[in-house]
Protein backbone atom coordinates (compact mmCIF):
# COMPACT_ATOMS: atom_id res chain seq x y z
CA UNK A 1 0.00 0.00 0.00
CA UNK A 2 1.36 3.42 -0.97
CA UNK A 3 2.02 5.97 1.75
CA UNK A 4 0.67 9.45 1.11
CA UNK A 5 3.16 12.29 1.44
CA UNK A 6 1.03 15.26 2.48
CA UNK A 7 1.56 18.75 1.16
CA UNK A 8 2.59 20.03 -2.26
CA UNK A 9 5.62 18.92 -4.26
CA UNK A 10 7.26 20.89 -7.07
CA UNK A 11 8.68 19.46 -10.27
CA UNK A 12 10.71 22.07 -12.16
CA UNK A 13 10.85 20.98 -15.80
CA UNK A 14 12.48 23.94 -17.55
CA UNK A 15 15.23 26.47 -16.90
CA UNK A 16 13.84 29.23 -19.15
CA UNK A 17 10.92 31.65 -19.00
CA UNK A 18 9.17 34.18 -21.22
CA UNK A 19 9.46 36.73 -18.39
CA UNK A 20 12.67 37.98 -16.80
CA UNK A 21 11.71 38.65 -13.18
CA UNK A 22 14.45 40.18 -11.07
CA UNK A 23 15.29 37.97 -8.07
CA UNK A 24 13.38 34.95 -9.38
CA UNK A 25 14.23 32.24 -6.89
CA UNK A 26 15.30 29.75 -9.58
CA UNK A 27 16.24 31.91 -12.60
CA UNK A 28 17.93 34.92 -10.97
CA UNK A 29 18.84 33.59 -7.57
CA UNK A 30 19.87 36.33 -5.14
CA UNK A 31 19.78 38.74 -8.12
CA UNK A 32 22.98 37.17 -9.40
CA UNK A 33 21.64 35.78 -12.66
CA UNK A 34 22.30 32.28 -11.36
CA UNK A 35 19.92 29.68 -12.79
CA UNK A 36 19.50 26.97 -10.15
CA UNK A 37 17.19 24.45 -11.85
CA UNK A 38 17.72 22.16 -14.82
CA UNK A 39 15.69 21.41 -17.91
CA UNK A 40 14.02 18.02 -17.52
CA UNK A 41 13.09 15.94 -20.54
CA UNK A 42 10.33 13.34 -20.40
CA UNK A 43 12.98 10.71 -19.64
CA UNK A 44 14.26 12.83 -16.75
CA UNK A 45 10.72 13.13 -15.38
CA UNK A 46 10.39 9.36 -15.57
CA UNK A 47 13.54 9.04 -13.44
CA UNK A 48 12.02 11.34 -10.81
CA UNK A 49 8.74 9.42 -10.73
CA UNK A 50 10.52 6.08 -10.62
CA UNK A 51 11.75 7.03 -7.14
CA UNK A 52 8.15 7.34 -5.93
CA UNK A 53 7.13 4.10 -7.63
CA UNK A 54 10.07 2.19 -6.21
CA UNK A 55 9.35 3.39 -2.68
CA UNK A 56 5.56 2.97 -2.93
CA UNK A 57 4.92 6.64 -2.23
CA UNK A 58 2.06 8.86 -3.35
CA UNK A 59 1.83 12.67 -3.30
CA UNK A 60 -1.05 14.82 -2.13
CA UNK A 61 -0.24 17.40 -4.84
CA UNK A 62 2.33 17.55 -7.63
CA UNK A 63 2.99 20.99 -9.15
CA UNK A 64 4.66 21.39 -12.55
CA UNK A 65 6.79 24.55 -12.68
CA UNK A 66 9.72 26.13 -14.48
CA UNK A 67 10.79 28.68 -15.45
CA UNK A 68 7.67 28.76 -17.58
CA UNK A 69 6.49 25.16 -18.08
CA UNK A 70 4.18 25.95 -21.02
CA UNK A 71 7.17 26.68 -23.26
CA UNK A 72 8.59 23.17 -22.73
CA UNK A 73 8.47 21.28 -26.03
CA UNK A 74 7.47 18.04 -24.30
CA UNK A 75 4.80 19.47 -22.03
CA UNK A 76 1.98 17.36 -23.45
CA UNK A 77 3.95 14.13 -23.19
CA UNK A 78 5.04 14.96 -19.64
CA UNK A 79 1.46 15.65 -18.52
CA UNK A 80 0.21 12.46 -20.19
CA UNK A 81 2.91 10.43 -18.48
CA UNK A 82 2.28 11.95 -15.07
CA UNK A 83 -1.47 11.40 -15.34
CA UNK A 84 -0.92 7.76 -16.27
CA UNK A 85 1.21 7.12 -13.18
CA UNK A 86 -1.68 8.09 -10.85
CA UNK A 87 0.79 8.85 -8.05
CA UNK A 88 -0.85 12.01 -6.74
CA UNK A 89 -4.25 13.27 -5.70
CA UNK A 90 -3.93 16.57 -7.58
CA UNK A 91 -1.84 17.50 -10.63
CA UNK A 92 -1.29 21.26 -10.86
CA UNK A 93 0.65 23.52 -13.21
CA UNK A 94 1.88 27.04 -12.44
CA UNK A 95 2.11 29.46 -15.38
CA UNK A 96 2.30 33.21 -16.02
CA UNK A 97 -0.56 32.81 -18.51
CA UNK A 98 1.25 34.32 -21.48
CA UNK A 99 1.49 31.25 -23.71
CA UNK A 100 -2.06 30.01 -24.14
CA UNK A 101 -1.60 28.54 -27.61
CA UNK A 102 -4.11 25.96 -28.84
CA UNK A 103 -1.66 23.12 -28.19
CA UNK A 104 -0.86 24.37 -24.68
CA UNK A 105 -4.56 24.69 -23.82
CA UNK A 106 -5.23 21.10 -24.93
CA UNK A 107 -2.46 19.95 -22.60
CA UNK A 108 -3.63 22.07 -19.66
CA UNK A 109 -7.14 20.61 -19.83
CA UNK A 110 -5.67 17.29 -18.67
CA UNK A 111 -4.69 18.84 -15.33
CA UNK A 112 -6.68 18.97 -12.11
CA UNK A 113 -5.70 22.55 -11.38
CA UNK A 114 -4.11 25.56 -13.07
CA UNK A 115 -2.45 28.37 -11.12
CA UNK A 116 -1.81 31.63 -13.00
CA UNK A 117 0.79 33.95 -11.49
CA UNK A 118 0.00 37.63 -12.01
CA UNK A 119 2.85 40.17 -11.95
CA UNK A 120 2.65 44.01 -11.87
CA UNK A 121 3.70 44.02 -15.54
CA UNK A 122 0.43 42.25 -16.31
CA UNK A 123 -1.75 43.56 -13.50
CA UNK A 124 -4.86 43.55 -15.71
CA UNK A 125 -4.27 40.02 -16.98
CA UNK A 126 -6.68 38.45 -14.50
CA UNK A 127 -9.43 40.87 -15.57
CA UNK A 128 -8.70 40.22 -19.26
CA UNK A 129 -8.77 36.48 -18.69
CA UNK A 130 -12.00 36.50 -16.72
CA UNK A 131 -13.74 38.36 -19.54
CA UNK A 132 -12.53 35.87 -22.14
CA UNK A 133 -14.12 32.74 -23.56
CA UNK A 134 -10.85 30.97 -22.76
CA UNK A 135 -11.28 31.47 -19.01
CA UNK A 136 -14.84 30.16 -19.02
CA UNK A 137 -13.73 27.17 -21.05
CA UNK A 138 -10.84 26.38 -18.70
CA UNK A 139 -13.04 26.83 -15.66
CA UNK A 140 -15.59 24.37 -17.03
CA UNK A 141 -12.90 21.68 -17.19
CA UNK A 142 -10.41 22.29 -14.37
CA UNK A 143 -9.87 24.40 -11.25
CA UNK A 144 -8.25 27.78 -11.94
CA UNK A 145 -6.61 29.98 -9.33
CA UNK A 146 -4.58 33.21 -9.41
CA UNK A 147 -1.44 34.12 -7.48
CA UNK A 148 -0.62 37.83 -7.38
CA UNK A 149 3.14 38.29 -7.30
CA UNK A 150 3.54 42.00 -6.62
CA UNK A 151 6.85 41.59 -4.85
CA UNK A 152 9.78 39.22 -4.58
CA UNK A 153 11.48 38.07 -1.42
CA UNK A 154 15.16 38.76 -0.86
CA UNK A 155 16.18 35.53 0.83
CA UNK A 156 18.88 35.91 3.43
CA UNK A 157 17.99 39.56 4.15
CA UNK A 158 16.10 40.43 7.35
CA UNK A 159 13.25 42.85 7.84
CA UNK A 160 14.41 45.44 10.34
CA UNK A 161 11.32 45.30 12.56
CA UNK A 162 11.15 41.53 13.15
CA UNK A 163 12.79 39.12 15.55
CA UNK A 164 14.39 36.06 14.00
CA UNK A 165 15.63 32.69 15.16
CA UNK A 166 16.07 29.28 13.59
CA UNK A 167 12.83 28.08 15.15
CA UNK A 168 10.86 31.20 14.19
CA UNK A 169 12.13 31.04 10.62
CA UNK A 170 10.98 27.44 10.33
CA UNK A 171 7.62 28.05 11.98
CA UNK A 172 6.74 31.06 9.80
CA UNK A 173 7.87 29.65 6.46
CA UNK A 174 5.19 28.11 4.23
CA UNK A 175 7.71 26.51 1.88
CA UNK A 176 8.34 23.46 4.01
CA UNK A 177 4.80 22.25 3.26
CA UNK A 178 4.07 23.81 -0.13
CA UNK A 179 7.35 24.04 -2.03
CA UNK A 180 9.07 20.68 -1.63
CA UNK A 181 11.15 20.02 -4.75
CA UNK A 182 11.55 16.66 -6.48
CA UNK A 183 14.71 15.96 -8.49
CA UNK A 184 16.23 12.79 -9.89
CA UNK A 185 18.68 12.37 -7.02
CA UNK A 186 17.21 14.31 -4.12
CA UNK A 187 14.14 15.63 -2.37
CA UNK A 188 14.20 19.13 -0.85
CA UNK A 189 11.89 20.72 1.74
CA UNK A 190 11.87 24.15 0.07
CA UNK A 191 12.81 26.08 -3.06
CA UNK A 192 15.61 27.84 -1.17
CA UNK A 193 17.49 24.72 -0.15
CA UNK A 194 16.89 23.44 -3.69
CA UNK A 195 18.53 26.55 -5.12
CA UNK A 196 21.33 26.29 -2.55
CA UNK A 197 21.65 22.51 -3.10
CA UNK A 198 21.74 21.68 0.62
CA UNK A 199 19.65 19.97 3.33
CA UNK A 200 18.41 17.37 0.87
CA UNK A 201 17.26 13.79 1.30
CA UNK A 202 18.22 10.95 -1.04
CA UNK A 203 15.68 8.51 -2.48
CA UNK A 204 17.48 5.49 -1.07
CA UNK A 205 15.21 4.58 1.83
CA UNK A 206 11.42 4.83 2.05
CA UNK A 207 11.29 5.51 5.78
CA UNK A 208 13.99 8.17 5.55
CA UNK A 209 12.00 9.99 2.88
CA UNK A 210 8.82 9.83 4.97
CA UNK A 211 10.62 11.00 8.10
CA UNK A 212 12.24 13.84 6.16
CA UNK A 213 8.89 15.10 4.86
CA UNK A 214 7.00 14.63 8.12
CA UNK A 215 9.70 16.13 10.35
CA UNK A 216 8.82 19.35 12.14
CA UNK A 217 12.43 20.17 12.99
CA UNK A 218 14.14 23.16 11.36
CA UNK A 219 16.61 22.52 8.58
CA UNK A 220 20.25 23.50 9.05
CA UNK A 221 19.76 26.30 6.52
CA UNK A 222 16.90 27.84 8.53
CA UNK A 223 19.39 29.58 10.81
CA UNK A 224 20.75 31.49 7.80
CA UNK A 225 17.40 32.08 6.09
CA UNK A 226 15.36 34.71 7.98
CA UNK A 227 11.66 34.36 7.28
CA UNK A 228 9.84 36.41 6.26
CA UNK A 229 12.72 38.10 4.47
CA UNK A 230 12.86 41.62 3.15
CA UNK A 231 10.59 42.11 0.13
CA UNK A 232 11.21 44.14 -3.00
CA UNK A 233 8.81 45.42 -5.61
CA UNK A 234 8.64 43.30 -8.75
CA UNK A 235 10.92 44.53 -11.52
CA UNK A 236 12.07 43.10 -14.81
CA UNK A 237 15.60 42.33 -15.97
CA UNK A 238 14.47 42.81 -19.58
CA UNK A 239 11.37 44.99 -19.69
CA UNK A 240 11.11 45.45 -23.50
CA UNK A 241 11.07 41.68 -24.08
CA UNK A 242 8.67 41.11 -21.19
CA UNK A 243 6.26 43.76 -22.52
CA UNK A 244 6.42 42.18 -25.96
CA UNK A 245 5.59 38.76 -24.50
CA UNK A 246 2.79 40.30 -22.43
CA UNK A 247 1.09 41.76 -25.51
CA UNK A 248 1.51 38.46 -27.35
CA UNK A 249 -0.04 36.63 -24.40
CA UNK A 250 -3.00 39.01 -24.23
CA UNK A 251 -3.59 38.59 -27.97
CA UNK A 252 -3.62 34.82 -27.58
CA UNK A 253 -6.24 35.12 -24.84
CA UNK A 254 -8.44 37.55 -26.76
CA UNK A 255 -8.24 35.61 -30.01
CA UNK A 256 -9.10 32.24 -28.49
CA UNK A 257 -12.43 30.74 -29.48
CA UNK A 258 -13.66 27.38 -28.25
CA UNK A 259 -14.37 24.78 -30.88
Overview in brief:
The protein is an alpha/beta fold and 259 residues long. It has one domain (3-255): Alpha-Beta Barrel (TIM Barrel), CATH 3.20.20.
Query: Mean pLDDT score, rounded?
Result: 95
- Using the coordinates shown, work out and report the CATH topology: TIM Barrel
Distinct helical segment count? 10
The termini sit apart by 42 Å
Could you give the order of strands across the largest sheet? 5-4-3-2-1-7-8-9
Order of helices and strands: EHEHEHEHHEEHHEEHEHEH
CATH class: Alpha Beta
Q: Find the structural class using helix and strand composition.
A: alpha/beta
| Fraction of residues in β-strands | 15-25%
Number of domains: 1
Rg, rounded, reads 18 Å
Low-pLDDT regions: none
Shape: globular
Number of separate strands: 10
CATH architecture: Alpha-Beta Barrel
Helix content: 25-40%
Question: Strand count, sense and closure of the main sheet?
Answer: 8 strands, mixed
Protein topology:
Blueprint: E1 3-12, H1 42-54, E2 57-65, H2 75-85, E3 88-95, H3 102-108, E4 113-118, H4 125-130, H5 133-141, E5 143-148, E6 151-158, H6 166-172, H7 175-178, E7 180-182, E8 186-188, H8 191-196, E9 201-202, H9 206-214, E10 229-233, H10 239-255
Parallel strand pairs: 1-2, 1-7, 2-3, 3-4, 4-5
Antiparallel strand pairs: 6-10, 7-8, 8-9
